[in-house]
C-alpha cells in the first residue's frame, strides 16, 4: 500500500460506479483494547462481500486522512480515517487507515469479483 | 515416553509462539512430537507490519509463511483447521467439537494445549478453547488426552486460583523470542503493545513463565 493519491482513488471509484461490486468494510480497535487498557472498549465491525451497486462515490480529504462515501440507490457506504491505498493485481481498490505503528484501524475495499471467503489452501 | 504426542490448538498463527513456545521447546527437547492445529490464517489481524507491508487481502499469505518459519524454529508440525479469523464464536460448537475430536484422535494426542474458555481475552481464543474441551469430553475417558488451558485475562487468577502447571521457560527464552520474531507482521505490534502499557515488566515476566490450568472432566 502507499499513501492515498486522491485523484487516483477518485478515478478508480468512478470506474467502479454503476456496476455490481463487492465491498469489504471494516473498523476495529482490536480484540486486546480493553485487556491492555481497562478504560477502553473493544469496538469493531466488518462486512465482507456485501454486493452493492453505487450511483457515485467521492473521496474527501481532511488533513492527514480521507473519507470515502458511496451513494447507493437506497443508502450509503462510508468510511473515515483512510490513509493508504492500493489497486492490486486483481484490479481491486483496497483502502485502509493505519495507526502510527502500522495497525489497521479501518478498511474499505471495492472489487468486481468476490473477496476470498474461506482460508485459501493454495496460497 | 515415545507414545506421547502434544497437540497445541489455538486460533491464530503466533498464539503458539506467544503462549506456549517455551513449553513446546521443553517437550521437543524431551523428544516428544508436537503438532500445532492452527484454527485460522489470522486473516483479520490488525498488525500489518511496521512499516506496513501487508494489506487485508495479502495478510493471510504472510502469516502462513511466518508460521512456517516459527514452526521451523520450534521443530513442530503445523496443520490448519480452515476456519476464518474473528468468526469462530459464531460457528456451531457441536460441529467444531466433532471436527476437533476427529483431529485429536487421529493424531493420538496425549496432551492437548488450548486456551481457557472465558479467560482468554480474544473471542476466537475463548470459542476454540470451548470447542476443544467439548471435543475431548466426547472422547472415551480411557483415551482422553490431558487438557492444559492457557488463561490470559487480567482477572483469571482471582477466579481460578493458581494454575496447576507452571513452566519457567527462561532456559528456552532464545527459542521463544526467535519464534515470536518469525511472526514478522505481528511481533513488533504485539511487543509494542506490551511495552506501552502500565504493567510492562509484569507482562514481559509473564512471557517468561508459561502457566496452564489442567481441565478436570467429571
UniProtKB/TrEMBL annotation, chain A:
Among InterPro entries, the record links this protein to:
DUF1806, YojF_sf
What protein name applies here? DUF1806 domain-containing protein
Automatic annotation (TrEMBL), chain B:
**InterPro entries attached here?**
BshB2 (IPR023841), GlcNAc_PI_deacetylase-related (IPR003737), LmbE-like_dom_sf (IPR024078)
In which organism is this protein found?
Halobacillus mangrovi
Query: Cross-referenced SUPFAM superfamilies, in alphabetical order?
Result: LmbE-like
Q: What is this protein called?
A: Bacillithiol biosynthesis deacetylase BshB2
Question: What domain of life?
Answer: Bacteria
Question: Which cofactors does this gene product need?
Answer: Zn(2+)
The molecular function terms of the Gene Ontology recorded here are:
hydrolase activity, acting on carbon-nitrogen (but not peptide) bonds, in linear amides
